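Case study 2.
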Amino acid sequence: MPELRGAHALTLTGAATDIVVIQDVHKSFGQSEVLKGVSMVCRRGETTCVVGGSGAGKTTLLRLIVALEKPESGKIFIDGEDIVPMGERQLNEVRKKCGMVYQYAALLDSISVLDNVAFPLVEHTKLRRSEIRQRVLAKLQALGLDESVLDKFPAQLSGGMRKRVGVARALMLDPPILVYDEPTSGLDPLTSRTVDDMIDETRGRFGVTSIVITHDIASCFRIADQVLLLERGRIVADGTPAELARGASDEARNFIAQSGVDVDKAIAARHRP
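Prediction:
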């Protein structure tokens, strides 16, 4: 297996720029070992995309990062703290550092946009209703939505608007990390591009570190600073999108080829150099 840039950088530096650091993590369910010694580093203010096919272990890795599962072995540092030995009370504090944006936004259909976005503040603060409304509106406006959506229900919103509402909710406790679970799954190409724009704009505007779990190579090429290819529970390649497309990893080249993405066009469409 080729040497991984992220794991190598961790060994040499342990840099203060590293906000999520995973070292030799193993995770099993029953007799099935899902993650087989995964190591990775996510740097502050950057976007890391974890790609791979169905059954590669992406969802399990996501659940470990947001402290919903524990590994059998290995270390997981979130903002400098190893969360593996922590108890539930400590983990609840760690979870506040990770805003979660779910695959289909996961909004509650029976309550308004205001109440959906306000949910983290209602659960974790003692703010007055008027102040909660102000904070919700400020986040929505920062994401390109206006006051008219506050009293609407999720079913009244477009797919792209629902994604933005989901991001607003994830940002309400001002977490340093946003984790996106298959954000472009089931969307048409135009809406997918809009979601990519939103992820990139959110990273820039709020200074968050973005971790995107996806199978969408085109999206990955547009937004990622770093890409990790996960296959059968192992990271088999990592680097910039261009490095994966043009590097020595047969696994990466095959995965990209199977996606049908025009590599040169995708690299040219990147938001950032």
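The longest helix spans residues 189-206.
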